[in-house]
Hints:
By secondary structure, the chain is α+β, with helices and mostly antiparallel strands. Helix content is 21%, strand content 26%. The strands form 2 sheets. Strands 1-2 form a two-stranded antiparallel sheet. A two-stranded antiparallel ribbon has the order 3-4. The structure holds zinc ion.
Amino acid sequence: MADVIITITCPVCKKEFSKKAKDLRDGTVVKCPGCGEKTTIRGTMFTDMIDKLDDGRSGHA
Length: 61
Ligand SMILES: [Zn+2]
């Protein structure tokens, strides 16, 4: 099974970085490689990103 890669945009410096979905779960803290800001992954945020991945195939904006 292929890894699902989640792109996270840092709220501070706007740098985008990627994490494997399987490494993320509700409450996981990820550290921005650009500025070091720590962002906590929320469960709803995570599922929203998965939904967008699915929907994006047919309805890309
Ligand atoms: Zn940052």
